[in-house]
Design brief:
It contains 10 helices and 4 strands; from the N terminus they run ααααββαααββααα. β1 and β2 form a beta hairpin. The strands form 2 sheets. Strands 1-2 form a two-stranded antiparallel sheet. A two-stranded antiparallel sheet has the order 3-4. It has 336 residues and is mostly helical. It has 2 domains: 64 residues; 212 residues, f41 fragment of flagellin, N-terminal domain (Up-down Bundle).
Length: 336
């Protein structure tokens, strides 16, 4: 008769190791059932892991661009709202200048003209989330100011005409079309009035597309509005002759008409940018969905299968605990 060495310690140790392995497998199975993907993607995919990582990087990059697009779109929406108000105010002021041209003695007071001037200034200096909408890339700097050099240049130029009551229609027309207009040309505007940048904010709206997503106070429509507003508020002097006042109103009305057309064009340009962002976001959403499906094919697990494995492993662990308890109650007599 041959006997075999039996050790309760060996049996207990084998059971303990099986229990530890089952607990690890259970944790992984629960993780897979909850997440819908392999607990350890590297182990499950092997050499295909790099492909999965690359796909996830693509998704992250596209989603990052979409978030950036949301910021750009909010800036465009705020700018469009301000341009809408600016456009409406310019039309109203244009109508007032037209009436003033017909009746320079009472259709538009200097106080009303100054109020319109201040309103235009406020709109050009509109800020959104701490960034000035019409400053171009200098979004942290107030775009337009009428103080110091700007105000002094207007007053100096006008005083050169002499006594207001003696200014003729021809003299005023020559002044407004010449020296006064020069104050608002590109060079003098930037030197005396504007701290805005000519360069607009650009945004990457897709992996291979960048567009302007702002405008700036140096654009011609903005300068024309301020030129007309300054003309009406500073030069509509009560001492000017009625016919001379008509010349001021006529020039202001012509400038505002050009500014209104320019503002419409600016609104249209920014509207195109808004549409391009919307189209880009739609394309990227489709791309993200397609890549996500490919990632799921690589990393995904069957949730039903994972749930079954969880149940089976729980039962196996309960059985292991039960066997461990029985082994502890064994003694040598049980083997004889």
């Amino acid at each position: 008769m041959r006997t075999t060495f039996i050790s309760t310690r060996a049996i207990s140790e084998a059971t303990r190791l099986t229990l530890i392995k089952s607990q690890v497998n259970l944790a992984n199975a629960i993780k897979e059932a909850d997440s819908g993907r392999h607990a350890d993607v590297g182990v499950a995919l092997g050499y295909k892991t790099g492909t999965a990582v690359s796909f996830r990087q693509d998704i992250t990059r596209l989603e990052s661009i979409q978030k950036s697009n949301d910021v750009a779109n909010m800036r465009l929406e705020a700018t469009q709202l301000t341009l809408k108000d600016l456009h409406a105010s310019a039309i109203k002021f244009n109508q007032a200048a037209l009436l003033y041209k017909g009746n320079p003695n009472g259709a538009l007071s200097t106080v009303e003209a100054k109020a319109a001037f201040n309103s235009f200034m406020d709109m050009l200096n509109t800020a959104n989330d701490g960034a000035y909408l019409f400053a171009g890339i200098n979004s942290d700097v107030k775009p337009v100011t009428y103080a110091g050099a700007a105000q002094a240049s207007v007053q100096t130029a006008f005083s050169a005409l002499g006594v207001p009551a003696n200014i003729s229609e021809a003299d005023m027309a020559t002044f407004l079309d010449g020296p006064f207009a020069t104050l608002f040309n590109d060079t003098n505007w930037k030197a005396n009035w504007s701290q805005a940048s000519d360069t607009n904010i650009k945004s990457r709206i897709s992996t291979n597309e960048m567009i302007d997503t702002s405008t700036n106070a140096n654009e011609e429509p903005m300068r024309l509005i301020m030129q007309a507003a300054t003309m009406m508020s500073d030069l509509s002097n009560v001492d000017l002759k009625p016919d001379t006042l008509k010349v001021v109103a006529d020039r202001a009305q012509a400038l505002l008409s050009r500014a209104i057309t320019g503002l419409s064009n600016t609104q249209g340009t920014l509207g195109i940018s808004e549409q391009r962002i919307a189209d880009s976001n739609e394309r990227m959403t489709i791309q993200v969905d397609m890549i996500t499906n490919r990632v799921n094919m690589l990393e995904g697990v069957d949730p039903n299968e994972a749930a079954l494995r969880v149940t089976a492993l729980e039962q196996q662990i309960e059985l292991s605990y039960s066997m461990t308890g029985r082994l502890q109650n064994l003694n040598i007599l049980d083997y004889l």
